[in-house]
Amino acid sequence: MYCDALVLYLIHQFRGDRTISGIYHLLKGKKSSQSVQDSYLFHVKPFFHSCDDLDRHSFQTLVERLNVCGWIQSAGSEQMHFILSTEGERQLTRFDLNKLIPDGLCNTDQVNDEGNFWLKLQLSVQTISALQYHQSAFLPITRQPSVTESVRKRIMKASLNRDQLASQLHHELHQLLLPIPLTEADLFAAQLTGFRMTGLTTSQIADSTGKDPYECRILFKSALRRIMKEVAEHKATYPFIAGLMKQTASTLSLTAGETFHLLKEGLSLQQVAKRRNLSVSTIEDHLVEITLKERNFNSSDFLSHELEQQIVETANQLNTRQLKSIKNQLHDEISYLQIRLALAKNTVQKGSLLIGENEETSKR
Amino acid sequence: MVRMKKHRRDEWIHRAQTVLKEKFGHDQFRCGQQEIILDVLEGKDVFAMLPTGGGKSLCYQIPGYLLNGTVLIVSPLLSLMEDQVNALRSIGETNVRALNGLIHPHERSRVLAHLSELRFLFISPEMLRGSTIRAALAKITISLFVIDEAHCVSQWGHDFRPDYLHLAEIRTQFGHPPCLAVTATADERVREDIVRSLELHHVSQTLMSVDRANIALVVQRVATNDEKVDHLCHLLENTRLPGIIYCASRDWTERLADYVRRKLGLRVAYYHGGMDPVDRRKIQNQFLDSQLDLLCCTNAFGMGINKPDIRLIVHFHFPATMNAYLQEIGRASRDGKPGLAVVYYAKQDEQYPEGFIDGNFPDDEILHRSLSELDQGLLTIGNKEQFVSSLLERGVSESAARFIYEKVQNKPIHCTYLSIFDQCKAVINKRKAIQLQDLSVMRNYLTSTNCRRAFYLKVYHEHQPAQKPHNCCDRCGIEFSDFRQTESTNKNDTERHGQILDWKKRLQIIFKEGERADAPIRNKRV
């Protein structure tokens, strides 16, 4: 089953360096710097935020099942840290890894905006369909004030009549769905709501297509990311939908972006923390995110070149990404922040963000 | 003088009936509505108790079209508010808005800027406590001050809302407009509380029976879960739908939905509070749009749901109070046609409501620890959400956390937090005793050997109706064949639309557009 392969693959990539919650947070796309960083460190960036509607209970049930099958085992003595058993390794090789990651999933440039964009798109479709059928009232797919407000603005700004609006949005969606794989296009459209035609949930789509819900989520995300990439690159071709997307290109979270701005002005970490009324450790989290995502960021103020080398060597020697083990091995003057920065920089320099380029995978 | 009054009353009746016909498309008022509306139109304070599905909203909607000014409706539940706004919009009313914690600040400003133009304004009790909003409302003419779900004002009620306690004072600030307090179910004790707390002097009371004669009542006793599922499947195969199946846990809603879909091939979905909000809304809309035959849900579903043709309500597990039970079965057949309510009762099901009652309150250890931590400064109150979430992190249940908040907030300044421990305990014991009492009434209903209807009417101190409905209850005997699915209720095309998976077809229907050529790109300015 797809979900087995998915979780086996992720456990394999995480190598027991994180608890099983780390994988759950990755799939959910938790906006903590830890999860963001993990997605780079373990070369699983496409999966970040790939199953954002996952609930913890069903994920746990799945992990327990893999454990009962004997495909995963505890990593050493640590609770909730898992690695693959030999049988698990064998199971994973039986699955075609290319099928695990549909192409579209790797378009992660707008991952911070995809949740919001999808809500806005669904609400726009629902609203315009209601207008087209002269339905004077409907229960909106979401009540999130920021979403309803921006859809309202978008529709007002278009200054088109009902027919034109419907025809424009239909046209844009049609052009966007045409080139993408049929399964993905169907899965995407089945979730859209119109007049007297409420969209299906992923679990309903799974039931009616016989697919596994995880695969449905991933295929849908692949479709969404293809669409967002296409729209971002050809804004003029898709004027209505482009207007629903966030304008800035940066993948930095809003709050990390603000910290980045202040650091560039020359403020120290402590000063930034004070100015923003946030704790220093939060600002440190931002720093790690900036190091991961902003290639031209110079981190030498926080980490000397020699220190960086030393940390990377130790990490490779121990073959781990666990901060505690690395810190124990090195002397105590080295801070956790420095270890995190060194690991972050190292991932970026290697530039290996996809599977296959990871040494662990190629060994198999 | 008397004649003048009579004359005016006749004129009001005439005008109210015109609005009923023109705006709402009904020919006749339902039982009790006309009397309530007339009292409201004459400027009296009114307390009205109408059963769930009895047409409460109409009692303030009609006066909205006949009185000058804005009808202000205080409503405690966001979903209820949304549904009511929606209902008014769908009859073409544009001057209706809602103010609650969920709306965007821009929307709030827009509403406040156009207050005097509104015919209906729905507001949450929390919002009413804000001084800016109150000042703005004090400037406009409020024709009627409506308190929906008025039982929330009573500490005896199961939904006590502390914010409701300020309503009398707020009403004075608005120039003391006439007040209409409505609720579906309130016993004598709660009714007295409402009238006193809202300061409704010389109030005109209309109490409609809680009885819904068109709903037949069945209690089916079973020994095991397997037996229960068998009975349920047999029932579903032979009964008119759509229907709702209430379960005590999220897990059960999913398991049942899955089983029933596989076994009977019905269009069934599950719904509970643990789902993604968008998925929840989708399922709700699918049910309202008749894309589903059956919904397996927890009691999270149903508030503000207005679907007149639900034919079957099943309780796979029984609820903790008679009140909740009547609320839930009251969602059946609001159009007046026959409906069926079946509850399955197994002895072991009693664990659910009992656990639920315990979970409503902190146990001694948690209460003691929370109070001491407050004294030591390890825990701070801040605002309600912060406090509740820091208790949740400590493993306290949400309702227990709310209970602690309610208590510590009112602590006398000079005392330590720990000093209110005994007082809290006393309140817990008292409230638990009430809830356990309610539960035992429910249990007695299930085990009663007499007429079910007679039983619950007695609970609400009502007299038996002169004539029993044709299909009353399992004790009096009912004809199950009267509820049988007929062939003519085949699903029509619109009901199947939801299932369309072909993306091109789906988009065409959504946008009401014909077959579209793939190639030409029409340039349009947006």
From TrEMBL, chain A:
<dbReference type="GO" id="GO:0006355">
    <property type="term" value="P:regulation of DNA-templated transcription"/>
</dbReference>
<keyword id="KW-0805">Transcription regulation</keyword>
<dbReference type="Pfam" id="PF14493">
    <property type="entry name" value="HTH_40"/>
</dbReference>
<dbReference type="InterPro" id="IPR016032">
    <property type="entry name" value="Sig_transdc_resp-reg_C-effctor"/>
</dbReference>
<dbReference type="GO" id="GO:0003677">
    <property type="term" value="F:DNA binding"/>
</dbReference>
<feature type="domain" description="Helicase Helix-turn-helix">
    <location>
        <begin position="256"/>
        <end position="343"/>
    </location>
</feature>
<dbReference type="InterPro" id="IPR029491">
    <property type="entry name" value="Helicase_HTH"/>
</dbReference>
<protein>
    <submittedName>
        <fullName>Uncharacterized protein YpbB</fullName>
    </submittedName>
</protein>
<dbReference type="InterPro" id="IPR008308">
    <property type="entry name" value="YpbB-like"/>
</dbReference>
<keyword id="KW-0804">Transcription</keyword>
From TrEMBL, chain B:
<dbReference type="GO" id="GO:0003677">
    <property type="term" value="F:DNA binding"/>
</dbReference>
<keyword id="KW-0238">DNA-binding</keyword>
<dbReference type="GO" id="GO:0006310">
    <property type="term" value="P:DNA recombination"/>
</dbReference>
<protein>
    <submittedName>
        <fullName>ATP-dependent DNA helicase RecQ</fullName>
    </submittedName>
</protein>
<dbReference type="InterPro" id="IPR011545">
    <property type="entry name" value="DEAD/DEAH_box_helicase_dom"/>
</dbReference>
<dbReference type="InterPro" id="IPR002464">
    <property type="entry name" value="DNA/RNA_helicase_DEAH_CS"/>
</dbReference>
<feature type="domain" description="Helicase ATP-binding">
    <location>
        <begin position="37"/>
        <end position="204"/>
    </location>
</feature>
<keyword id="KW-0378">Hydrolase</keyword>
<dbReference type="InterPro" id="IPR027417">
    <property type="entry name" value="P-loop_NTPase"/>
</dbReference>
<dbReference type="InterPro" id="IPR014001">
    <property type="entry name" value="Helicase_ATP-bd"/>
</dbReference>
<dbReference type="GO" id="GO:0006281">
    <property type="term" value="P:DNA repair"/>
</dbReference>
<dbReference type="Pfam" id="PF00271">
    <property type="entry name" value="Helicase_C"/>
</dbReference>
<dbReference type="GO" id="GO:0043590">
    <property type="term" value="C:bacterial nucleoid"/>
</dbReference>
<dbReference type="GO" id="GO:0030894">
    <property type="term" value="C:replisome"/>
</dbReference>
<dbReference type="InterPro" id="IPR001650">
    <property type="entry name" value="Helicase_C-like"/>
</dbReference>
<dbReference type="GO" id="GO:0043138">
    <property type="term" value="F:3'-5' DNA helicase activity"/>
</dbReference>
<feature type="domain" description="Helicase C-terminal">
    <location>
        <begin position="228"/>
        <end position="382"/>
    </location>
</feature>
<keyword id="KW-0067">ATP-binding</keyword>
<dbReference type="Pfam" id="PF00270">
    <property type="entry name" value="DEAD"/>
</dbReference>
<dbReference type="GO" id="GO:0016787">
    <property type="term" value="F:hydrolase activity"/>
</dbReference>
<dbReference type="InterPro" id="IPR004589">
    <property type="entry name" value="DNA_helicase_ATP-dep_RecQ"/>
</dbReference>
<dbReference type="GO" id="GO:0005524">
    <property type="term" value="F:ATP binding"/>
</dbReference>
